[in-house]
Write a structure and sequence with these properties.
Layout: H1 7-14, H2 25-38, H3 58-72, H4 75-93, H5 98-108, E1 112-115, E2 120-124, H6 125-132, E3 147-148, E4 151-154, H7 156-177, H8 180-186, H9 191-202, H10 220-230, H11 237-249, H12 254-260, H13 269-280, H14 293-298, H15 318-331
Antiparallel strand pairs: 1-2, 2-4, 3-4
C-alpha cells in the first residue's frame, strides 16, 4: 500500500512521534547493517544489544531494521532477524526490576498492572492468549492460569516471554504496513550493502528432496510445521518434536529432516543434529512416536480447520491420518 506523507512522517508515526527520527540515521543504520550481515552466520553474535527494551532508542532501531529487511525482501531471513531481535529484547528484560517491568510492557503496547505485595502482574486475557499462542507448554495455556479482575496473573519470567512474543507480533504487523517500493527508494544509498546481505542470505536455503515420502498424505499440522520451517519461522519445541518423529516414522532420511530445519532463525547444525539424532533414537536409544492429536491440541499446535479426516471421530494420531490418506490415494 502507498504510505501517506513522507517516509520520515511514516516512520515517525510508527515510532510514536520522535521529533527527529533521522538525526543520527547514518550511524544507526550502519550498526543495523553490521548486525544483519553478522546474523547470516548463526554462530556469530553482534557485540552489544541494539534492541534493549530499557533504552529509549530501541523502538526507532527496531523500526529501521524492519524497513531494511523489507528492502532485502527474504521471508526466512526476515524471520531469523525478528527472532534475534526478540532474543535481544528478552535478554534486556532479565535485569529489569519487578516494579519497572510493567512500564516497559506499556512501551510495547501491553497494558499491565503490578502487585508489589504479591509480586505478580495482571494482563488482559486477549493479550495473554495472543502473545502465548506460539509458546509451547501447559504453563502458557489459558486454561491453567489464575485470574483476578478479568485479567491473567503472571510471574516475571512469564511476563518476559509475553512481552517478547507480543513484540514479534507487532513487528510482523509493521512489516505488512511497509511498502517495499518506497523503502527501496528511501534507502537507495544503502543498496550495495543490503544487496550483498541478500545474496549471502540466499545461500542459506538448502533445497529439500523428500524422496519417496508421500507428502500429499501429511496431516495439516505436519504441513504447517514444514511450511514454518521453510519460511524461517521459529517452531515451538513440541512442534519440532512432532515433525521430526513423524517424518522419521514415515521414512524420511535423517539428512532430509536436517535440511528442513536449515532455514529456521536459530538454526545450528550441531545442535539440530543432536536433537534430531536424539528423537530418532541414535543417542537416547528410544525411537519416539509423534504426540497424539490431543496433545497437539492442548499445546495449540493443531491446524485441522475443516479437514474431513482430522474431524472424523476416530482420528487420534497424525500417523493414523497419514495411513488413511495414503491408502485412499492408492485406491483412487
Amino acid at each position: 500500500m502507498e504510505s501517506s506523507g513522507t517516509m520520515e512522517d511514516k516512520i515517525r508515526e510508527m515510532t510514536g512521534g520522535f521529533s527527529d527520527p533521522f538525526g543520527d540515521s547514518s550511524e544507526r543504520i550502519g550498526r543495523i547493517i553490521r548486525f544483519l550481515d553478522d546474523s547470516i552466520v548463526a554462530k556469530n553474535r553482534y557485540k552489544g544489544n541494539l534492541y534493549d527494551l530499557t533504552k529509549n532508542e530501541w523502538k526507532m532501531t527496531s523500526i529501521l531494521t524492519l524497513w531494511l529487511l523489507k528492502v532485502i525482501d527474504l521471508d526466512y531471513f526476515t524471520s531469523r532477524i525478528i527472532y534475534r531481535i526478540r532474543d535481544g529484547m528478552e535478554e534486556s528484560l532479565q535485569n529489569v526490576r519487578d516494579e519497572d517491568l510493567s512500564i516497559i510492557a506499556e512501551r510495547v503496547g501491553i497494558p499491565m498492572e503490578f502487585s508489589p505485595a504479591e509480586s505478580f502482574y495482571i494482563s488482559r486475557i486477549p493479550i495473554f492468549t495472543k502473545s502465548c499462542s506460539r509458546i509451547s507448554g501447559s504453563t502458557f495455556r489459558l486454561v491453567y492460569q489464575s485470574f483476578r479482575d478479568n485479567g491473567v496473573l503472571s510471574n516475571k519470567n512469564k511476563v518476559d516471554k509475553i512481552i517478547r512474543e507480543y513484540a514479534v507480533i507487532q513487528m510482523r504487523d509493521i512489516m505488512d504496513e511497509i511498502d517495499r517500493e518506497n523503502a527501496v527508494k528511501y534507502f537507495e544509498s544503502y543498496m550495495p550493502d543490503l544487496e550483498g546481505i541478500r545474496q549471502k542470505a540466499q545461500k542459506l536455503i538448502t533445497p529439500v528432496d523428500l524422496g519417496d515420502v508421500d507428502t500429499s498424505a501429511f496431516p495439516p499440522c505436519i504441513l504447517h510445521f514444514i511450511s514454518d520451517a521453510k519460511n524461517g519461522v521459529n517452531i515451538p519445541h513440541m512442534g519440532r518434536f512432532a515433525m521430526v518423529s513423524f517424518l522419521n516414522k514415515v521414512g524420511m532420511s535423517e539428512e532430509d529432516i536436517m535440511k528442513i530445519f536449515s532455514s529456521v532463525p536459530d538454526f545450528s547444525r550441531k545442535i539440530t543434529e543432536y536433537q534430531v539424532k536424539h528423537i530418532l533414537g541414535e543417542i537416547s536409544g528410544i525411537k519416539y512416536t509423534p504426540p497424539k492429536c490431543e496433545t497437539l491440541r492442548s499445546n495449540h499446535l493443531c491446524y485441522m480447520d475443516d479437514d474431513p479426516i482430522c474431524n472424523s471421530p476416530n482420528m487420534k494420531h497424525p500417523l493414523t491420518y497419514y495411513k488413511i490418506k495414503k491408502q485412499a490415494g492408492k485406491k483412487s
